[in-house]
Design brief:
Pfam families: Glutaredoxin. The chain is an alpha+beta fold and 145 residues long. Helix content is 52%, strand content 11%. 28% of the residues are buried.
């Protein structure tokens, strides 16, 4: 749990230190702007922008029932962020597994990626797809015509 918050907290702390230094030099406007940038980066890198993660076994069970893809991800991964942002509201229809919170999820990803924890790894119908195009993932959510 804590590991997911390390990068966002470092960004907030770093931004605060730099903003304090700028404020002491009399550049209040620059300090506020820079602090906002750091806070935005912290927000984007936080686990808050992702739908609630569930365990790998539960995600696989749910996927078998409803046919929705399972996304294995980790906080701080820019490719995971790209996938999440490009999916928009559709992202909530997927089953998300944070591999830093779920050891079974990390093991599934390693098994699919020759021992590497490469994310995002998206499982569709039991087959892994590493860092797929977000448009393709969105198509997998649509019912077949």
């Amino acid at each position: 749990m804590m590991r997911a918050w390390i990068l966002p907290m470092l960004l907030v702390l770093s931004g605060s230190v730099v903003a304090a230094g700028l404020t002491l030099r009399g550049s209040t406007g620059a300090a506020v702007a820079l602090l906002l940038v750091f806070l935005l980066l912290a927000g984007v890198n936080s686990p808050l922008i992702f739908p609630r993660s569930i365990g790998a076994l539960e995600a696989q069970r749910r996927s078998a029932v409803d046919g929705r893809p399972v996304v294995f991800w980790r906080p701080g991964c820019v490719y995971c962020q790209r996938l999440r942002m490009r999916l928009g509201r559709s992202a909530r229809r997927l089953h998300w597994v944070d591999i830093w919170r779920d050891a079974d999820g990390a093991a599934v990803v390693r098994a699919a990626n020759d021992g590497n924890e490469t994310v995002p790894t998206v499982f569709v119908a039991g087959r892994p797809h590493v860092n797929p195009d977000p448009a393709w993932v969105r198509e997998q959510l649509s019912p077949p015509a």
